[in-house]
Amino acid sequence: MSVTPDLTLWGVGTSRTIRPHWAMHELGLSYKIKPIGPRTGETKTAEYTRLNPRQKIPLLQDRDFCIGESAAIVAYLSRMYSTPERSLIPETTRDYAAWLEWCFFIVAELDSTSLYVMRRHRADALGHIYGVAPEVVAQAGEYFRQQLRHVEVALTDGRTFLMGDQFTSADILLTTCLDWAIAYGVGICDNAQPYLERIQSREAYQRAVAANVPAAPITPAAAKV
């Protein structure tokens, strides 16, 4: 017997929090949003720490089950709630393995090793915490461009998505990294641009962008209105 989802997503405002928002819109799932942000103190409350001792966002609650890490959340949603009409994972064993390879590559090489290193050491990002390091930022950007060649090769055969004709959660992970890279002025390969435009035209992507916007802080003037 199928279980009715009871989903709550904690976290908005980053390239990582948008991923589970997007996956749930692709899957047609209803969910509640707790619009907390990173480094605001909201992840350090007693309530949130009980749910996620790592004190990071995003975090997904599915009834009595909690899972963090954006790629893991997306993979869980893809496995748990994909249907024949709305699926974010391939069916065959080898296609599933290829999907895993793309997901791990994107998270390890494009996100953590490249873009997040830039975020940690940019003056306009987290440099005040981890130290401003322009040379490190430049090298991380160059590494991103080198690794993106694998995406460039994959897209040269005319495929619509990373897995061919099927949109999967690997495309969610890749698109958020491409968006992030453009925001940081890294630049992306030529054939990734039409790919990105196709993905960004998806209704679920646009809904996720809207859902991922942090709530505006209430100023004293606004509070009087």
UniProtKB/TrEMBL annotation:
Residue intervals of the GST N-terminal domain: 4-85
Single annotated GO MF: transferase activity
Ranges in a coiled coil: none
UniProt cross-references to InterPro entries, sorted A to Z: Glutathione-S-Trfase_C-like, Glutathione-S-Trfase_C_sf, Glutathione_S-Trfase, Glutathione_S-Trfase_N, Thioredoxin-like_sf
Organism superkingdom: Bacteria
Record key words, sorted: Transferase
Every GST C-terminal domain range: 92-221
Keyword Ribosomal protein among UniProt keywords: no
UniProt name for this protein: Glutathione S-transferase family protein
